[in-house]
Amino acid sequence: MSETIIPAEIVEKDNTARKPDLERDYASLGERLDRRGIAIDAIRDKVEKFAVAIPSWGVGTGGTRFARFPGAGEPRDIFDKIEDCAVISQLTQATPTVSLHIPWDKADPNRLKQAASRFGLGFDAMNSNTFSDARDQKLSYKFGSLSHADAGTRRQAVEHNLECIEIGKTLGSKALTVWIGDGSNFPGQVNFAKAFERYLDAMKEIYAGLPADWKLFTEHKMYEPAFYSTVVQDWGTNYLIAKELGDKAFCLVDLGHHAPNVNIEMIVSRLIQFKKLGGFHFNDSKYGDDDLDAGSIDPYRLFLVFNELVDAELSGAEGFDPAHMLDQSHNVTDPIESLMLSAVEVQRAYAQALLVDRNALEGFQDGNDALMATQTLKAAYRTDVEPILAMARLKTGGAIDPVATYRAAGYRAKVAAERPAVVGGSGGIV
Ligand SMILES: [Mn+2]
Fold first, then answer.
1. How far does residue 200's CA lie from ligand 1's centre (Å)?
2. pLDDT at 423
3. Total domains in the fold of the chain
């Protein structure tokens, strides 16, 4: 039995007060879904099994290029971060793993493993960092890392990724995510082809160090920190990388790493079709890579992404097993609250996508009935699945209303007293 941070009686008290209403809402929704030929318990069972990883860096307050306004009781180190992740997991029962970032979270791997297993947490993908310089680093990444013109700098970046794999092996991680800041700020600054060639050569060395049962994820990003070109610019480049490297290499889709209005759900479909979808970094955006909370701006787009994922799941697409992680920046909210609600938003999109009448949709598609095809998606999207999500949490020991329970527990005030404010601190969103 793993330890819980929020006292069980507080969760129990809030759940007891909310349970009668939830049961009525669940029964009512069940009846309506039944009329559509959907068994509510089957949807709830799937939701219960759905998991999304929490990035260790997400529990700290984020910032912008202008400023960072630290919140109270911010985690001081990776062990505090693991405790915050344990709270999110306890109340939502949707986030059983933590994704570490090296070197930000560097610590004795055995101690890390012990700290996480205390709360029943596991480790998701390892994230390397060659987009900023660590304190004791020999060569700078100011002008790139895996694509750097200097062989010594590339070697150092490769070694760092291999070290991340080594740490991950001890932790029980099964994937390495590589995101690089490499690119250029001026036309002519780098030779596109040569830089990409150097990147591919370096990635091949990392890939060679990957254990047989691991996956390698590469993440594309169209701009920032480089503002004219980036080496891993778009999903096409990302696909080429995964294709060049081999069967263990997959593309990671960060929802914020595209130009505005890009049809991300179609990219997802393409990557599934060609067996290269590795997984997601969920967040939302309005103007660019805003790193806002998942589902906060355009929940319909999140639903449409899940519509593709559920389509693949139900059709038994070969090798389909995407990783889910949140990757967002919490600048004005309590990160724990944002992450809990974001995990729920991702679950919500999944549950809604499960409600799509796929036989009817196929018929409308074949019959060129555009209006009814799109209405079929809307019918699923418009369904308020909150009772399903809440019931899944209640059944698995979570909170019916995670934010209400979290606030009732006074966790933030408690850790604010224990954790003195850190000056500076690491931020960073990849
Ligand atoms: Mn990301």
1. 20
2. 61
3. 1
